[in-house]
Amino acid sequence: MKKWIVALAVLLAFGTAAPAAALTGQSPQDTVKMVIQPQYSYAFPFSEGLAAVAVDDKIGFIDRNGNFVIRPAFDGRQASATENGLYMFREGRALFRDNGKYGYLDKRGKIVIEAKYDRAFPFQQGLAAVVKDGKLGYIDRNGNTVIPHVYHYDPLETENPSFQDGLAKVATKSGNTILYGFIDTTGKEAIPPREWLVEPFSDGLALVRDSSGGKLELYYIDTAGKKVLDLTGRYSRAYGFYSGMARVEKDGKIGYINKNGREIVAPSYTYALNFSEERALAKIDNAYVLIDRNGKESERLAYSYIEKFGNGLAMVESVTWDFSAGKLKQERKTGYIDPAGKEVIPPQFDKGQGFSEGLAAVQIDGLWGYIAKPGLEQPSDWAKAELAEAAALGLIPQGMDQGFRNAMTRAEFAGLAVHLLTVAWDKPVDDMLKERGAAVDPHAFRDTRDETVLAAHALGIISGRGNGIFDPEGAINRQEAALMLAQTANLLGVQPGGKTETFADADEIAPWAREAVTAVSAIFDPFKEVPVMTSTGNGRFSPKSAYEKQQALITVKRLYQAKRSGD
Q: What is the spatial distance between Cα 370 and Cα 72, in angstroms, rounded to a whole number?
């Protein structure tokens, strides 16, 4: 009975959703929801559920309701462009600064690693790059040195030394010559140091510019160090891959290629940025355009500045001039556009930042607060019917009936998968574990003690990111979700029975996820005649894209229906 009450409530909520402007006649900018009022001298983006804010030159951390979780006590100087990740949580640790030295906090505000490093970087893949006495090394989340401080560090030359795709770019000196190579997370040399110019890995490839033979060689290597894409002679310059696309330059103009080396956009722009969330930004004359993965341009956008996309929106800046009282006055205002170039939030703020975890910091009259991404609370039209079915079946856990367009965290998805099992088997978690002889290991991960996450681990639904890290607050991407769903399907005894779907971006799916993606795209909800997971459009799976809560709930519902049909 309760399930149908919930379903009715969900249906009523979904059926009556309407923009505030449509109900009140207000202008679009009146629909912007200021969730945390402007009151801070500076504000940082949200990361892992918390955001750093400055009050009286001290930094503290607030939650999404604006409540202080960590009282202001840290150095309140704003982060500079060279201090990537300062006061941002990554893998349960936030980098902070004290008297010119760097250390790390946990989410309770406890200093877990003292400020003793000359330079430090955010945690990534369980390790953080830190500099001490001019040498670079790596520490774990407890501050233990895992890889000794033996590598060359130059604050002006060293690129991002964090681990990416399991490898970190490091430098050694041989006389006056600097050699670059890559190490793995154990410190083992994966690609030997050489006298070449090589960039850190991105999207599984690293760009090499090698002039040692007397002419410029331009190519990409994979994580085994093998040359996989040679651009020598084709372009004068190239850049790293992002979202499966890389910028290339010829005769002073920029275009884009895919991982097969196919030219998607011929070099024609004097200014262009990397792809971000399926869009790249370029300039024609004095106007911006957005480019999709097929090379199609948007209409020209008359903004003075456009930032990269985050959470589906990009920050834009508009400049107007006013001549009054004999003076010419310039006014800059910040707003946000969607991937089609449509103005979702008209420019109205003095300053702004990109959206992160559904919120964006904006400045009004010198003070910073936070706005919510429009439409996050209500589900998309395409999702309403299936979400109502999920509610009727009791598959929406308590607390997950809101924020449908928010990115799902890894911990939330683990909880959702466990909840599906309790509904499908009509048994509590403890009974499921006991029947399978599975025992919860409270020390399975160093960054979470969440009972549901640990139960999901004991049942074999999830694993970590390595080195005891689960990253509970990190946004789950589509290939990670596919793996968890496939593991859950295996527990339910649901086997693929439909036609396997072939995706246009199959080469972008990580090897560890390919079998799972194949499986979940071939398991069908017989009542809707749709697979558990399918393409995001244009035949793409988009493996590294964040997974929205509404998508997660619907895929779990489809898997449940597949289970019911087989019983």
A: 18
Ramachandran bin of 61, using left for φ above 0, alpha for ψ from -120 to 50, beta for the remaining angles: beta
Strands 359-364 and 367-372: antiparallel
Question: Could you give the C-alpha distances from 201 to 98, 182, 224, 403, in angstroms and in order?
Answer: 31, 9, 11, 34
Closest CA to 169 of 217, 228, 221: 221
Q: What is the DSSP letter of 500?
A: P
Cα distances (angstroms) measured from residue 334 to each of 120, 177, 231, 509:
32, 46, 39, 36
Nearest CA to 442 out of 421, 403, 470, 417 is that of: 470
Q: How many CA atoms lie within 13 A of 340 on its CB side?
A: 3
Contact 105, 142 (CB under 8 A): no
Measured CA to CA, the distance from residue 142 to residue 147 in angstroms comes to: 14
Angle between helices 549-566 and 384-392 (to 10 degrees): 60
For 132, 228, 565, the CA distances from 516, given in Å and listed in that order, are: 43, 26, 21
Extents of the domains making up the chain = 381-566
Which secondary structure element, helix H or strand E, spans residue 153, and what is its range? none
Query: pLDDT tens for residues 410-453?
Result: 999 999 999 999 999 988 888 889 899 998 898 898 888 788 89
Indicate the SS3 state at residue 482: helix
Write out the DSSP string of 192-233. EEESSEEPPPBTTBEEEEE-TTSS-EEEEE-TTS-EEEE-TT
Q: What's this model's pTM, rounded to 2 decimal places?
A: 0.71
